[in-house]
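Side project, low priority. Logging it here so it doesn't get lost.
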Amino acid sequence: MIDKGNITGIILAGGKSARMGTDKGFLKLNSKTFIEHSIEALKPLVCKIIIVSNNPDYDIFNFERVEDIIKDAGPLAGLYSGLKQSKTEFNLVLSCDVPLINQEILASLIEAQDSYTDIVQIVSQGQSMPLIALYNKRCESVFYKLLIHNERRLHIAVNQCKVKNIELNFKNDLFTLNINTPEELKKVVHANHN
């Protein structure tokens, strides 16, 4: 397995979140903010955590925070900004709207890494999840080229790289749920209490 000294955790917390109406990283589940859940899952596996966000409120967590280098270009720009800032070959990337994520799922990405794969990503319920993935630092230049040509679609960027998919079994699907609306948050809170 890759030494954690060669892995940086990158949390993408840049979304304006029109559907939720508030910054998702500060929503709470089980009395912890979403971003605290992300930090907890990442921390044992990485040597450093970078938060990609233009919101200075995230500075309370005392991690390095970087702003999008290319503004208003969505998650691809956030991913590029995080990779550019990273000093390690491998980077565990997590969006801050997956509060049930756990260390075990993230560790499975690291275990699946090999020397020729650029991106190891989770596939849950048939959906690939490029924001729960392990990225090689070499993706940075690929993403930059796309961004300067106004390509913002993450799936297009990912498809330019060598990708390995890790299929979750159905009982783990819950841990990778994206929370985008107040209704989805209610559902997760409810499911978590059962």
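Brief comment: The radius of gyration is 16 Å.
Revisit when time allows.
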